[in-house]
Design a protein that fits this description.
The structure holds two protein chains of two kinds.
Chain A: H1 3-12, H2 36-45, H3 69-88, H4 118-141, H5 148-152, H6 154-164, E1 169-170, H7 174-180, E2 181-186, E3 189-195, H8 200-209, E4 212-215, E5 222-226, H9 228-238, H10 250-253, E6 258-264, E7 273-281, E8 291-297, E9 343-345, E10 352-355, E11 360-366, H11 370-377, H12 396-402, H13 404-421, E12 434-440, H14 457-462, H15 465-474, H16 488-496, H17 501-509, E13 526-534, E14 549-555, H18 559-567, E15 572-573, H19 576-586, H20 599-618, H21 640-661, H22 664-679, E16 686-687, H23 691-700, H24 722-732, E17 735-743, E18 754-756, H25 760-768, H26 784-794, H27 809-812, H28 822-825, H29 827-833, E19 858-868, E20 873-881, H30 882-891, E21 899-903, E22 911-916
Parallel strand pairs in A: 1-3, 4-15, 16-17
Antiparallel strand pairs in A: 2-3, 4-11, 5-8, 5-10, 6-7, 7-8, 9-10, 11-14, 12-13, 13-14, 17-20, 17-22, 18-19, 18-21, 19-20, 21-22
Helix pairs in contact in A: 2-3, 21-22, 21-30, 24-30
Chain B: E1 6-14, H1 26-50, E2 54-59, E3 64-70, H2 74-78, E4 86-89, E5 92-95, E6 97-104, H3 107-125, H4 132-145, H5 152-168
Antiparallel strand pairs in B: 1-3, 1-6, 2-3, 4-5
Helix pairs in contact in B: 3-4
The chains are: A alpha+beta, B alpha+beta.
Chain lengths: 919, 169
């Protein structure tokens, strides 16, 4: 019975008599006559209680030896009293009408108390007042809200919007997204995660055959200004040549191409990465000396340019708007108070750092037809001949029209843009091409109905074939990469002078022929933009340049003006979810997910773990997956550090075995190095990004096509043997390597699936029949279950917990574990201490050895896994320990090298997978 | 509205030695009734007893018991009551018999009857008194029983109503 029911019942039974009897526990050791005052008591105070009462219904008097007539009489009298109260008091206390017999009750009595018999009137009046009061109180509790009409009035609506985005910023397309997407609050923004309609496959199709649009304005954008050599000197500290082209790469330095690097903390190269960054050098204009660079780090990645002695670059959304928010639409970053510095200047080098986040709108178009969507939506700006050129104008475009040079440049850019229309696929262009352009307001050419932008074949024939070839081979010429978007004044001018939708619609309605195009286009409608080509799939051997596209950079305030026309060209819209799938299919590591050594990646992992744990705990224990039985130690996180440490230990063990056999010189070398490793302080796990090493590793794992049917040709790779492996591990023993695993048969990998080493028998099985599905993991025993049960029981009887069976008993029967488990030996003791935070189905915190917990040795975990629509089989991206991987390769026979096992956390079934390291 | 109907038996536990009465408790009485029913009517009776049978009230001083029985089978169960010759309570056998004073459709009618009955008994006790001290006590008890506010009439009215309802059942 619920508490409310008990209360109700208590109230109802308050006047009912309780049994009068002596407590059963007391012995009959006599006493004197019962006190009549005392005997009456239980009737007064007890009230009716359900069931048998142990203490005799509160009647705690010792039993007398004999009774007298007087006491008997008083007992009778007491009983009569009790019965009288029970009979006279009405039980149904809430309604006076209950006191009336049925045939006398009338409906109208409830509001007209005069209909009641007089004896009940007073009570009824009191009750009625009470209920009226309660009703009015409830009404008062509701917040005083204005009428809907008032709330929807424009000014009030804007105020409300500004209030709502105080904590989490909105992008310019927020309202559009909020109507159609599941929104998530992430990184201080409100972002669309996935559409509310079903479109997973449609979005994939759009990416691979037409065009998918995303709003990426939440990317941090930082502008650095300074002299080129000084800038390069500072930036070179943050990167390393070993990871690929740096800031100083010739192509990107000229401003023709966009580059991308992974940043590290200044001078800390192999350790402490910060995150990936794409950058763009502003092309040199002969007049302007300082070069600029726009860095676009992914969200959340904090950039600490220690090289420039500027600290505190980490942007915080400190919404300290003390003043009343103005009823004005916020453009750009509304939370940024005008006093907050967005610019830092280094005193020693003169480098200026500008934070341009939310100053630029960034849209990404993905797919082979994205250029035709762009070509249909945007038109190169028409110049203004009609205007009197002598007159100065507050707008920027008429001023530009006066300058012959600028108009020439614009003409050239427009020509390049025209050629662009004739290209067959976006992927044909050189990756990272940049094109600056000035375009007309796309709202003017908005079609009345949604149309699907198709490549214009006719135009393609018209365009000069040679020019197109040149564009495809060379990219955009250097001077055409210049855009006025770089200039703060032009950006501001464009943003301030934007024609509102309302005005534009009025102008459209005033056109003589309804539906015809507005001409001349109002002078305000010229927008400088920057088109940046995004490379598609560059790694691997198939589906190359899949998912290539364009990034469209706009000045702030113009977001919706460009968004709707783009949507009207039949593109699909994707959210964060699609970004993840895009990078997954492209074979690019996605920022917070696949950077476990970055601070943002670590934070992401923690968030993900707590989120998954909450979700897990919400289920009733009987309906949860028992991960202990599945032999899954950490289903919600990946203990990378522990994995790397364990594999380091294993390799060292193996080394010491080999050195005893080797000659003395070798031994000396080994020991000396081992000393170094011993003396080295506990290093953190890092992800291997050295391209040379990656290429070597990739060659060793025998790259094949995605399903493993065909071998791919690779360049000359030194043969893998024990010595090569040890020399490789000398530098990378604590590293993880990002790998792609494709399943050989069926199965869909999930995230946090285990990557394991197959045993010799497994490989035999694979050799026999390629259709074999894979080995099974024997179910583990859950020793914590009994402990949880005992803990629950322990509340009742405080018995000391008996000694538990040793937790490492399930590891004793493992065939493949010859390695010592340093963590398991101390496990039982420590886990018995932590019984307080036991969760059913999960291992308590000090995990035993992660590598040798199951019957197959664990190498790593999967961070993303799904059925890949592009490959047609299950594909997973994850990290494995370099030491473990090499160890496995050395021990595996040549024909099976690179074959690993994959097991989902919720399954006991291992699946064969082929490992690929794509550089 | 449909409700589960039951009959309430107002019984008196008669014992040769009054002090033994104090040993009783509700569970012992219930067990004795169950046992008797099982003895007389077998498994069928025991099964009827299992639902809807409770001891609603027991006064160990006066030996008054309210038994609730399901209306469907109360006659059958009632017929077993005379066969109770002793009640086992607190490890002791209290030899007794149950006499039924009243059968009511609601517990309220039983309570009303009990009031009347108790009063009557007290009045009967008065002439049997041996010493003035006792007499004094009983007189006080009788005075205590009188209804405060004197709404005895209303009570009796309701009594009639309830009786009518019972007949309708």
């Amino acid at each position: 019975m619920s508490a409310a029911k008990v209360k109700m019942r208590g109230k109802k039974m308050r006047n009912q008599p309780v049994s009068v009897q002596y407590p059963s526990s007391s012995a009959q050791n006599g006493g004197d006559t019962p006190n009549p005052e005392r005997t009456k008591n239980p009737h007064q105070r007890g009230g009716w209680v359900r069931g048998h009462q142990k203490d005799g219904g509160g009647y705690t008097k010792e039993m007398p030896k004999h009774i007298t007539a007087g006491s008997f009489a008083s007992a009778r009298a007491a009983e009569v009293q009790a019965m009288l109260t029970a009979v006279t008091k009405t039980t149904g206390s809430c309604h006076v009408y209950g006191a009336l017999p049925k045939h006398m009750r009338r409906r109208s009595m409830s509001h007209n108390t005069k209909r009641l018999p007089r004896r009940l009137r007073d009570v009824a009046n009191r009750m009625r007042e009470k209920s009226l009061q309660a009703g009015s109180k409830k009404k008062k509790e509701q917040p005083k809200s204005k009428s809907r009409k008032a709330r929807r009035r424009h000014g009030n609506l804007l105020l409300e919007f500004n209030r709502r985005q105080r904590k989490n910023m909105w992008l310019e397309t927020h309202i559009w997204h909020a109507k159609r997407f599941h929104m998530v609050k992430k990184w201080g923004y409100c972002l669309g995660d996935r559409p509310t309609y079903k479109c997973y496959r449609a979005c994939y199709r759009a990416m691979s055959s037409h065009c998918l649009l995303q709003d990426l304005s939440y990317y941090c954008c930082i502008e650095l200004q300074g002299e080129e050599d000084k800038l390069l000197a500072c930036l070179s500290l943050l990167t390393s040549k070993e990871t690929g082209p740096t800031f100083a790469a010739a192509l990107s330095l000229s401003g023709r191409r966009q580059g991308s690097v992974v940043l590290y903390r200044a001078g800390q190269y192999p350790s402490q990465p910060l995150g990936p960054v794409t950058f763009l050098w502003r092309p040199l204009v002969p007049v302007v000396i300082p070069a600029g660079v726009v860095l676009t780090p992914e969200p959340e990645s904090e950039k600490t340019p220690e090289a420039q002695q500027v600290t505190g670059t980490k942007r915080k959304h400190s919404g300290k708007d003390a003043s009343v928010p103005p009823a004005k639409k916020i453009l750009g970053d509304g939370t940024r108070s005008p006093t907050t510095a967005v610019t830092w200047k280094s005193s020693s080098t003169g480098i200026v750092i500008n934070d341009l986040t939310l100053e630029l709108v960034r849209y990404r178009l993905i797919g082979p037809q994205s250029h035709s969507v762009l070509a249909e939506t945007l038109e190169a700006a028409t110049d203004c001949h009609e205007i009197d050129k002598s007159q100065s104008s507050p707008l920027w475009w008429p001023e530009h029209c006066k300058d012959e040079n600028k108009m020439n440049l614009h003409q050239q850019q427009a020509d390049v843009y025209h050629i662009l229309k004739g290209i067959y696929s976006t992927g044909e262009l050189p990756p990272g091409t940049v094109l600056g352009l000035t375009v007309d307001d796309p709202r003017v050419t908005l079609p009345t109905k949604k149309v699907k932008a198709l490549p214009c074949v006719k135009q393609a024939q018209e365009v000069d074939e040679e020019k197109r070839k040149e564009l495809m081979l060379q990219g955009v010429p250097e001077h055409c990469c210049q855009s006025y978007l770089w200039e703060q004044s032009v950006r501001d001018n464009v943003t301030d002078n934007k024609i509102s939708e309302q005005q534009l619609n009025r102008m459209k309605s005033e056109v003589l022929v309804p539906g015809s195009r507005l001409s001349p286009i109002p002078l305000q409608g010229r927008v400088p933009i920057l088109l940046v080509h995004q490379p598609g799939k560059q790694v691997g051997h198939e589906m190359s340049s899949w998912g290539a596209g364009w990034d469209l950079l706009l000045p702030k305030g113009w977001g919706m003006a460009f968004w709707v026309p783009l949507v009207y060209r039949g593109v699909r819209i994707g959210g964060l979810n699609m970004t993840l799938k895009h990078s997954q299919n492209k074979g690019v590591s996605h920022f917070p997910h696949d950077y476990p050594d970055c601070p943002a990646g670590v934070r992401f992992q923690e968030e993900q773990e707590s989120e998954l744990l909450d979700k897990f705990k919400r289920r009733p224990p009987a309906k949860r997956t028992n991960y202990i039985k599945h032999g899954c130690l950490a289903p919600f996180r990946c203990p990378w550090q522990q994995l790397a440490e364990e594999w380091e230990l294993i390799t060292r063990e193996a080394e010491s075995q080999t050195t005893t056999e080797a000659d003395t010189v070798m031994e000396e070398k080994m020991t000396s190095r081992r000393d170094i490793t011993v003396t080295k302080p506990q290093s953190h796990v890092t992800v291997l990004r050295n391209r040379k090493s990656l290429r070597l590793l990739s060659g060793w794992c025998k790259p094949t096509t995605s399903k493993g049917q065909r071998r791919c040709r690779v360049g000359e790779v030194p043969p893998l043997d024990r010595s090569a492996a040890t020399s490789f591990l000398a530098t990378h023993v604590m590293s993880l390597v990002w790998v792609r695993l494709s399943l050989l048969s069926k199965g869909k990998p999930e995230f946090h699936a285990m990557v394991c080493v197959p045993t010799a028998e497994d490989l035999q099985l694979l050799k026999k029949g390629s259709s074999s599905t894979g080995p099974q993991e024997p179910p583990h025993k859950d020793h914590f279950k009994s402990r949880i049960k005992r803990k629950k029981k322990g509340n009742k009887k405080t018995s000391t917990p008996a000694l538990l069976p040793k937790t490492d008993s399930n590891e004793s029967d493992l065939p493949s574990t010859s390695e010592p488990n340093p963590t398991t030996s101390k496990d039982p003791k420590s886990s018995s201490q932590s019984t307080s935070d036991l969760i059913f189905g999960l291992w308590p915190d000090p995990l035993p050895s992660v590598t040798s917990h199951c019957s197959r040795v664990t190498l790593g975990w999967v961070t993303q896994g799904d059925f890949s629509l592009s490959a047609g089989c299950g594909e997973a991206l994850g990290f494995v320990s370099v030491a473990g991987l090499l160890n496995t390769f050395v021990n595996q026979p040549m024909e099976h090298r690179g074959t690993l096992l994959l097991r989902n956390p919720t399954s006991l079934h291992y699946r064969f997978a082929k490992i690929n390291i794509e550089v | 509205m449909v409700r589960v109907k039951s009959r309430y038996l107002l019984c008196e536990v008669n014992v040769p030695d009054r002090s033994r009465l104090l040993l009783l408790d509700d569970r012992a009485v219930a067990a004795a009734v169950r046992e008797a029913v099982a003895r007389i009517h077998g498994d069928y009776g025991a099964a009827l007893c299992s639902s809807g049978f409770t001891v609603k009230y027991l006064n160990a001083h006066t030996g008054i018991v309210f038994l609730r029985l399901p209306k469907r089978s109360y006659r059958l169960l009632w017929s077993a009551l005379p066969f109770i010759s002793s009640i086992e309570a607190r490890g002791q056998k209290v030899s007794c018999f149950l006499s039924c004073l009243h059968v009511g459709g609601t517990i309220r009618t039983c309570q009303k009857f009990l009031i009347q009955y108790n009063k009557q008994q007290l009045h009967r006790m008065l002439p049997k008194c041996k010493n003035p001290e006792e007499e004094q006590k009983i007189r006080r008890a009788i005075l205590n029983c009188s209804v405060p506010g004197g709404n005895m009439e209303g009570l009796e009215d309701e009594d009639d109503d309830d009786d009518e309802e019972e007949e309708e059942e």
